[in-house]
Amino acid sequence: MPFNLFMRKNYFLSILLIISLIISITYFYGCSVNQAKIDNSLKKYFDSTKVDGCFSMVNNQTGAVTVYNMKLDTQRFLPASTFKIVNSLIGLETGRITDEKMMIKWDGIKRWNEEWNKDLTMTEAFKVSSVPYYQEVARRIGRDTMKQWIDTLHYGNMNISGAIDSFWLNNTLKISPDEQLGLVKKIYFDKLPFSKRAQQIVRDVMLRENNTLYKLSYKTGWGYDEIQNAIGWVVGWIEENRHVYFFVTLIKSPDKNIDMQELRMKITKSILNQYGFFKGEM
Fold it and tell me: Does 31-274 carry CATH code 3.40.710.10?
């Protein structure tokens, strides 16, 4: 083959490789927000409770993306306890969590949430969002292994500097709602670089409501940004009639007394209700 023809062929192959890589990264880590439908009717749910926030959803059947407040949807925030999704996956994959029944003994330190002050299995710790349980998991995983997995996932800004047991709580690690949406879509379809077993276990513990009309799976999170705004998350999916819809709610408020535990679910369920969910008709 003539040298020039060889060089030209390699050039075009390189271009095709780069294009494929860009497409795959976009699919893996986010959901085409540039083609999203903007739904400002959702503003009332945030305004009525005097908070800022955003909501995004992907209809897996059609690929349609709906977003309220694009600016916040593409901005990164601390993941808080939504990081338990990834912490669980890494723990299971590395054997630091043997299975969903693995118990970690209570360290005897009394904390504000009474549900944390006892021996807990992984399933129990995930449901009550036990910070101490998952801090111990992170310590057992270790910095080098944790960093390797965070980099492999391209999770948010991939910054886990500082203490190994608090980087997801102290604004070191950050991720956007759009990136969270891409993550939960991947875990649902076993497309993350973990075993199917690990992904199935995490899907199982994320299932919170299961009846004849729908299945609702999610993980919540609650923390504070650098200027002490409360940040609340609900990250997950809802299934009706064998159709799945992925969603992320983010709430931001300067109110130190906000009841984030109640408010984040109230807003999320109000939006899902507006879209016609919970009736088994979607």
Answer: yes
